[in-house]
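ugh ok fine here u go
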Amino acid sequence: MSTLLQTLLIETLPEDTDPILRLYIEKLLPPLEREFRFISALGGSYEAHYQLLSQLGDSYAREKAQSWSSRADQNLLVHVLNGLLTAWNISKYLSQPLSNVEKYLLCLGLTLHDYNKYCNGQGEETPKQWQVEEIIDLCRDLGEKLEFQSFWSKWQDYLPEIAYLAQNTQNKASTNIYPANWPVPKIKDRRRLEIPLRRLLAFGDIAVHFSDPADIDTQTGGQRLREQLRFLNINKNLVYHRLRDTVGILSNGIHNSTIQFAKELNWEPILFFAQGVIYLAPPDNETPEIPELQEFIWTQVSGVLAHKMMGGDIGFKRDGKGLKVAPQTLELFSPAELIPKLPRVIEVKVANSKDPATPKRLEKLSLTDTEREFLSKGADIRADRIAEFIFLTQKEFFGESPEYINWMLNTLGISNKISPEQTQVQAGGVNYGWYHAAAYYIANHTTLKPEDISDSIERWAEDLANWAIENNLLSSHSSPIRKIFYDYLNQYLEVKGWDSDRTSFDTEFTAYANAKTKVAKQPICSLSSGEFTSEDQMDSVVLFKPQQYSNKNPLGGRQIKRGISKIWALEMLLRQAFWSVPAGKLEEQQPVFLYIFPAYVYSPQTAAAIKLLVNNMKFINLWDVRKQWLENKMSIHALQSVTWLSDEANLGRFDKDKYAREDLPFMAMNYTTTRGKTLTDAWVQPAFLALSLSILLGVKVIATSSSVPLYDSDCDFKESIVLDAPASFWNLLGLSNSLRIQDFQNAMQRLLIAYSLHLDTRSSPPDAKWRDLIKTVREVTTNVLNIFCLAAEGLRRDKRDIPSQEEVKRYWQYAQIWVKQDDFKQNGCVFLMKLIEKLVQQYRVFYQANLGESSHTILLPLSKALEMILSVPQQVDVDDLILQASGQIQDALGRQEVYKRPLMMNRSVEKTKREEQELMAIHAFMTTCVRELFLGIYKGDRALLQENRNRIKSGAEFAYRWLALQEKSTKVS
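structure:
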């Protein structure tokens, strides 16, 4: 079975990819994922590290655990994969290409180079660098576990070379590079192990420790990378670009535009970060000119927006007062450019053919009955479109210009029927006069079809633009957004070789202080710090409701409308363009945003794979997730069986991309919505997705309802997963809002148990009733036996009394996995489950009912025992209570069929002896009930026992059925 990461890589690998690298991904990646996914190469949980080191007897366990956990997370899988791909990518610059054997050695040597981290993660000792035989044996064992044979049949013949490369990749302490210490290699030229192989491995390993593009200049790792290039005789320079701010799609657009610009300079991207790229550049590389690069980036970004705007998708919104234009639209286009393009926008936005506005507008006018009857022939969508076009062009470009009004009346041919004054009738910002004129025109031309009207509006728009230019009626065009965008790039974009004099804090503080005064009357951006000029939030721009209170207002002011900077306005329009989300509507669907960061770094191949996922990830059906999980015996590996990609992705077709096909998502973005009304409904999907994507792809994920990313880069937070203010079920599951690599398995198992149990017991397909998930989680976390109570409720809902064998096994497995993940030292879930199982085992010695009988019959001994404990006066001695209850149970058994009494069925023993054996077995059972259950767990509190009575009985019934099935399967086998 192929994995998600494997599928993404294979789908996006270039056609000319080397067959050996493709074979590595096809054969070795799945076992690598299985073994390395939950091992931390960098970062990780302090508690997990400390526990493992303590078990190994490390005297510096506390210091090492603190040091390791202080770094950001990166699992061993992506560490190895990105390191290998990076080394592979630069190998093409070698003066002497690698042979096939050397390519195999490169792959396997880098795969095993951090074998010590794997051993530490397994709680095993690692050999010292001088223990060569032990190192080779360890590499052999790990190679067999990782299925090297499927990748290279001769790998064991070259095991000394693989072990040598694995041991000596890092060029630090613990290296053992002396040939005399190693067996004679099979490779023809041993010098090739040192150069190029060991240096290629070192380059890849150093690179994946970088967390920022500027590290090549600010960290010692940059010097070490250059050193490896010198050893390899690769005459290239390392350069970078970095954007020190992250807003979303706009940031990705800037990054990708910079990459396109860099291609013209022969800069090849080799490492991708959330904030930029490291390139290999020619030795005589030129530093790009700042204005030239800024102009190129602006052309790319504005070009995308312009194309979408002219399709009518974004930048315009129609409400009860007519069509509105976003300020950014007016700044991107001059009036002469925009007017001829408006007919297409009108056709898209004015589409209310079933409920046209013209009849409602005409009702507001003082007209005679004759006029109303005549105009009614033109009061439809055709008049709406004409009126919206005329009023929009007047409002945005001509104002109350009499020349415009007369020109438009003459164009319509109604200047002798409708006066200029009549066209300007309006109230409350709503124009009525032009609707009157439009209706009159249509009433005179009733045979015109809507498409004929669209053609006419296009012709009028062209004529209007030409006429306005000839008569100098259009105002000069300026683009403040362009200047601010350039200022933003000056402030945040870095390219190696640029000198920059940034005064961000001074600018930001001054702008904020000035805007807080009443005199300024300047809105402050509610999405950013306010360093750039802001404007009122327009409902044609933002995805949420703009009229919400914000404390980012002048002190003492009364304005409640929030502001938005030009930069964030661009981001909102880009989200509308790429997500196809109507302005102002997204908030109603309770979106939760997923911000996906690389764990330190992407290679070009993994960056392309993440792009494919973001563009083609389908809505995840949690019913299907539950099905796959159960079919795979409740293993986390079942996540690989879930259908993550749409059919188009699997077939290699990429439609409706959230990013352009050539663009890579540096910080990828996705979001979920819900039709439900509660916060729980909104968080069920994103909680699962955040955890799954980090497990399957090794990425870092932030899930939040904020449309603003919480962090600019993955190096700003250590954890692999951060859930920002999730629904309460998450914390009730005992899960932290921040998870590290070693927390994944526990978190995913608890989440899948909760989801599956809820779907099993509380849903009504197709309605999953996620709003009630909090109830399910609360009950299970309160007492593990509530799993069986919920199961019983589900049976009653389905009007069934007896669970199927599969249900018995499933619910019992739920409980077993749950208590393994739980902190049993605090709530005793493990002890409680074992005690319930012990009680049932003890009474099955003397009493066994058929599985087809009722719950009352199956639980007869336990029910009698609980009844006696609860009914006997408190002053009765414990031993007397046990004896009395034992006698009562034996009397009850005497009234049952003899086949239900296994000890009495053994006729090879005398009857008195059988009765004695039965009584002794009952006494042992009753002793456990009283001393361990009543006095032990419930501390002799009868009220507490009464409260938990049904839970105990539900758990015991499932334990009985499960033990009976186990006994039956044992007999069959």
